[in-house]
Design goal:
heterodimer, A: about 250 residues, alpha/beta, Rossmann fold, nine-stranded mixed beta sheet, two-stranded antiparallel sheet, about 30% strand, B: about 300 residues, seven-stranded parallel beta sheet, five-stranded parallel beta sheet, about 25% helix, binds flavin-adenine dinucleotide
Chain lengths: ~250, ~300
């Protein structure tokens, strides 16, 4: 069984994003970029399934600029077997990403696609669900536990009021939530090995997919800044302020 | 124009967040709602103020709001609607993007403000930026943040209930079980006061130090990711970029440092209080009132003062 894991290159989660002065977007030039943290979890889960013998090969794919190669190498250093870069200068929306992934799924024939539940730049939380819809596959989103048994995959999902278990027929889509696992750090020897693993580049135009954006950005703005308030010396003072100044209790 | 709202439910109740989705949809036109589950849920839906028609999908295959059959059902109903809306919770985020893909539409998640019928504001980068986006799709599929729209009154309406036909869809997934935390406390997303604890709470046992405070304030209890990951509390209490988004009248953070991912979930609260023993903790930069000190001293003192 083959597993496909889409990984996205995003602004590192430790960086505080800055809105561009002209309001056209968020500054990404010269900013540290890393693999989307949820995708590290997705890669880890796929590699563990292979290590357990439930899968035979883990293929990672990224849709993006040339530098997304670094993200793919990181995924291979974590244990993925090979990589595909779908090269584009645009930043495609989830609908376009899902359409591209669908063509790759048809070509590669994986039984499982494991994605991150959301990318921390656009916070869309959509691509996995959309890919599942386009393929007509079952979906186990926001997964905190995954078991492959007897041609099915059982998934624990984090929902609003607790946890839910669903069982999906294979092939299926999984999207990884934070507590699915703790991703490993790539060791130096594995980083060296990853440099020799195969990485195929496909120009997005070659796939014949309509990637035209449906959303146009009118503006991107900083949210209203909160100002630091005052420090108080005691619980009594705080309760007095909450009662008489803020009037919230 | 008419909007269709997917009303999600949990534990036999329509979720409060779904009532906020009704309010948002009412800005876009006439409001029809789709609800699954038993007749009592359809009746509850018909009483929501501002709803003009209830579509009830009573078939058992929809009862657990599984994305695969429910998205197919929404697609079959979509013809008559300009907007398809749900609360930005676990159900809306699971089902609507799938339906959108089948309709060849790019969804617009986490809407916090409606500019006009095709233009919406949504936070990106953990709320560090607000993007105003315009959709060129013929139909708009959106999820809305309940913290940004008041809940529609649960009583006052008397909409007719119409049964909807089952749509054949392959058996892709099966509901197995659900574990809901049975808390007597108010719902985190709609509570007026939220009392949250972080890694500084120390342990599962010591986290209960917040209980008496939540009791006197009638507050919901929340947590940081670190507190959840350390096993102090279950995951559904997590507040932040990847947890619940809350905007209560009063948010009190105990032993929480104030990482941007946590702030993303609570910085729109009206009044923020932080108690932390580190005077340089970033949480103080967003707090209206702060106390530098040990939370295990401050919390019991607060309870004492509040009881006075
Ligand atoms: C309002 C708006 C503002 C934007 N602003 C910017 C901007 O300032 N700068 C900028 O660079 N781009 C911008 N974009 C484009 C953006 O970067 C995204 O590529 C696009 O919106 C995808 O959303 P997402 O990554 O949040 O998807 P999600 O659905 O949250 O992603 C979920 C998962 O899908 C997979 N996935 C998603 N995208 C890819 C990919 N390209 N390759 C491989 N796997 C993937 C990953 O597994 C990921 O964890 C903007 C888009 C919109 C709609
Ligand atoms: C992709 C991604 C998504 C994330 N999503 C979220 C999210 O949704 N929500 C979230 O919360 N985090 C999220 N995080 C994690 C986030 O980055 C922080 O790690 C987390 O919020 C830290 O939690 P904390 O403040 O409880 O812990 P810490 O940062 O360890 O802070 C503990 C604080 O407690 C104080 N303290 C300790 N003991 C006491 C005491 N006795 N009295 C008073 N103060 C005390 C300390 O001074 C310290 O400031 C995410 C991270 C990533 C990478």
């Amino acid at each position: 069984m083959k597993i496909l894991v889409p990984v996205k290159r995003v602004v590192d989660y430790n960086i505080k994003p800055r809105v561009k002065a002209d309001g056209s977007g968020v500054e990404t030039a010269g900013v540290k970029m890393s693999m989307n943290p949820f995708d590290e979890i997705a890669v880890e889960e796929a590699v563990r399934l292979r290590e357990k013998g439930a899968a035979s090969e883990v293929v990672v794919v990224s849709i993006g600029v040339q530098q997304a190669q670094d993200t793919l190498r990181t995924a291979m250093a974590m244990g993925a077997d090979r990589a595909i870069l779908v090269l584009t200068d645009e930043s495609p929306e989830p609908l376009a990403v899902a359409k591209v992934l669908k063509t790759l799924v048809e070509k590669e024939g994986p039984s499982l696609v494991v994605l991150g539940k959301q990318a921390i730049d656009d916070d869309m939380n959509a691509t996995g669900q959309m890919l599942a819809g386009l393929l007509g596959w079952g979906q186990g989103t926001f997964a905190s536990k995954v078991d492959v048994v007897d041609g099915r995959v059982n998934v624990s999902r984090e929902i609003d009021g607790g946890t839910e278990q669903v069982s999906l027929a294979l092939p299926a889509i999984i999207t990884a939530d934070l507590r699915l696992n703790e991703p490993r750090y790539a060791s130096l020897p594995n980083i060296m090995k990853a440099k020799k693993k195969p990485l195929e580049t496909i120009p997005a135009a070659d796939l014949g997919v309509d990637m035209a954006p449906r959303l146009s950005i009118v503006s991107v703005a900083e949210p209203a800044e909160r100002k630091a308030g005052i420090k108080l010396g005691s619980a009594a003072e705080l309760v007095e302020k909450l009662r008489n100044e803020a009037k919230v209790i | 124009m008419t909007a269709l709202v997917l009303l999600d439910h949990e534990g036999g109740q329509i979720r409060k967040a779904a009532l906020s989705a009704v309010t948002a949809a009412a800005r876009l036109g006439d409001v029809h709602v789709l609800v699954t589950g038993d007749a009592a849920l359809a009746q509850a839906a018909s009483r929501i103020a501002g709803v003009s028609k209830v579509l009830h999908a009573a078939d058992a295959r929809y009862a657990h709001e599984l994305a695969e059959p429910l998205a197919a059902l929404i697609v079959s109903l979509a013809g008559g609607y300009d907007h398809i809306v749900a609360a930005a919770g676990a159900t809306g985020k699971n089902v609507l993007p799938r339906a959108a893909a089948l309709l060849d539409v790019q969804p617009i998640p986490d809407v916090v403000s409606i500019v006009d019928a095709q233009t919406f504001v949504r936070p990106i980068y953990a709320g560090n930026a607000l993007a105003t986006v315009r959709s060129s799709d013929a139909k708009k599929v959106l999820t809305v943040r309940s913290a940004s729209f008041d809940a529609a009154p649960a009583e006052g309406g008397s909409a007719p209930v119409e049964a909807v036909a089952v749509v054949d869809s392959p058996d892709l997934s099966r509901f197995e079980a659900v574990q809901l935390s049975d808390s007597a406390r108010p719902d985190l997303e709609s509570a007026r006061v939220v009392v949250s604890g972080g890694r500084g709470m120390g342990s599962e046992e010591k986290f209960h130090a917040l209980d008496p405070l939540a009791d006197v304030l009638g507050a919901a209890v929340g947590a940081s990711r670190a507190a959840v990951d350390s096993g102090f509390v279950p995951n559904e209490l997590q507040v932040g970029q990847t947890g619940k988004i809350v905007a209560p009248e009063l948010y009190m953070a105990f032993g929480i440092s104030g990482a941007i991912q946590h702030l993303a979930g609570m910085k729109d609260s009206r009044v923020i209080v932080a108690v932390n023993k580190d005077p340089d903790a970033p949480i103080f930069q967003v707090a209206d009132y702060g106390i530098v000190g040990d939370l295990f001293d401050v919390v019991p003192q607060l309870v004492e003062e509040l009881k006075k």
